[in-house]
Amino acid sequence: xxxxxxxxxxxxxLTDFAHSRGDELIPNDSYGIAWRGRSIVKTQPVPDRSLxxxxxxxxxxxxxxxxxxxxxxxxxxxxxxxxSTLFNAVTRTRKAQAANYPFCxxxxxxxxxxVPDARLEVLSKLSHSQKIIPTAIEFVxxxxxxxxxxxxxxxxxxxxxxxxxxxxxVQVVRCFENGDIHHVSGTIDPVRDIExxxxxxxxxDLASLQKRRDRLxxxxxxxxxxxxxxxALIEKLLPYLDSGKxxxxxxxxxxxxxxxxxxxxxxxxxxxxxxNVGESDLAAIVQKDETNVARQHVRAVEEYARNHxxxxxxxxxxxxxxxxxxxxxxxxxxxxRDLGVKESGVGALIRAVYHLLGLRTYLTTGEKETRxxxxxxxxxxxxAAGVIHSDFERGFIAAETVHFxxxxxxxxFAKAREAGKLRIExxxxxxxxxxxxxxxxxx
Length: 443
Known about the structure:
Layout: H1 7-20, E1 24-26, E2 34-36, E3 39-41, E4 50-53, E5 62-65, E6 72-76, H2 83-91, E7 109-114, H3 118-127, E8 131-133, E9 136-141, H4 156-164, E10 168-174, H5 190-221, H6 225-242, H7 254-261, E11 271-276, H8 279-286, H9 293-309, E12 313-316, H10 318-324, H11 329-339, H12 346-356, E13 359-365, E14 369-376, H13 381-388, H14 390-394, E15 396-403, H15 404-410, H16 413-418, E16 423-425, E17 435-441
């Protein structure tokens, strides 16, 4: 199984990542990486490689990130729409080069990002926890795409190969006016820009499917049922893509979904849109000022995303967030208040990508730590337990469960138990986002 960006290489990259932020690596022999289904689980010791985030990310307590279910989202778009600035803002680094000319990003930049979750702080206070451990995802800054990328124009071939390796796409669209920053098409039209990107991805998928269909002919003549099923699905996909629609919006059976996953189509990846607006526009957009030009651009993107991808668009100001990177949390909050907004949108973007990847969070809490654990939507209790340790899944007995909202409203586990909100769940329980859990197991 292929793990995002090469799981084995993660260990060395984490060291560089932490040091680049001025953070500290603390040894922990109990953490390791191994393959188990869709997860990266802690089964083999890897000493001296547990990442602790500090500095700008927290004012008190220790934050640690251990990587499980590490999936990645690729940041894509035309040149000079703010991709690298957004990447730097999301990862709170200056790692990606952001410049006013096309292709200033050639090799993809990689960054591990903690997922903002206000519930952790609340639970930590309830349990008097010594530290908080959020969950994380990976962002990849990919070179800008231009018209003709599917035939190798610009950095097309590199772009397409890099985008195939990510699990989801964040398409950055420029919704800000700035005469000093060149636009490859000369004018600001975010829907046009989206269609340029989508056309290139669709053309690449069409070429890939046609080649695959040709390769299947020999197996079909030999009577292969698998090859015949693949060919039938390709014949279903080709006219759909040719009509300008992304593969992810095509209605498929469960069996077809499994097969299409093996095609590695670019347009089958979950996608959301990041509307990059200027500093002076953000407050107007938050206040829904329909006379604001950037607001009109955002509305057009939101409608396009809803109608063509059945997805959402998130408003961000990469430039504002890039200016917040070097500020303390209190200073950053004051800066945003002066602009008339609560956040630049990056936090909302990270959370939206997390859910786009099909990931959900359950929580554990105690005096030692309050922690977020990543699972897939629809995972049952034993699989959730296995994220902590494979022994928890193998020897699963039951899960003591209460939802975060119920626990906080009642004030304690004891009161939650009295109210019947703290319950015992078995092997068939589907874990919900925000469940606070404690597992019983025996091995």
